[in-house]
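User: tokens in, sequence out, please.
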């Protein structure tokens, strides 16, 4: 049984995109970055993924330099390689070639002591789609509140 501890979730990705399919990938980090991730100093907010030279790369993810890392620290927003099977990379390359699809990281977490990234194949939302998502969320929240008050009687 695997133990999962979520470090960061990219909430902006769910607001900006329709999530089609998701994949779990390993991520290549240096030791001081892993220590910083363990402390939760990660931000996936403006990050995205690209397929380049038979590999998937995470761009723009911010991992704050480890404060006790001295000269071992690397650039906080450097390009990081994601570890996927060749078949998955080829499948993603074909799907991204379709108009409007992109790869976005949705979650960074520990699974059995290893840092993993959940990446999602996503299609961009239009402005009216974002408004509909917000309205649906507000309606659900209001309905849940009313049900809770009704059950409290």
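Assistant: Sequence out:
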């Amino acid at each position: 049984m695997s133990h999962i501890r979520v470090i960061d979730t990219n909430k902006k990705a769910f607001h900006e995109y329709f999530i089609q399919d998701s994949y779990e990938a390993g991520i290549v980090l240096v030791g001081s970055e892993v220590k910083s991730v363990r402390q939760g100093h990660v931000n996936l907010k403006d990050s995205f993924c690209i397929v380049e030279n038979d590999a998937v790369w995470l761009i723009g993810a911010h991992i704050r330099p480890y404060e006790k890392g001295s000269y071992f620290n690397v650039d906080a927003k450097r390009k990081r390689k994601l570890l996927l099977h060749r078949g998955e990379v080829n499948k993603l390359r074909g799907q991204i070639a379709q108009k409007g699809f992109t790869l976005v990281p949705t979650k960074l977490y520990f699974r059995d002591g290893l840092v993993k990234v959940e990446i999602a194949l996503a299609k961009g939302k239009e402005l009216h789609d974002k408004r509909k998502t917000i309205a649906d969320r507000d309606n659900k929240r209001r309905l849940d509140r009313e049900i809770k008050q009704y059950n409290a009687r």
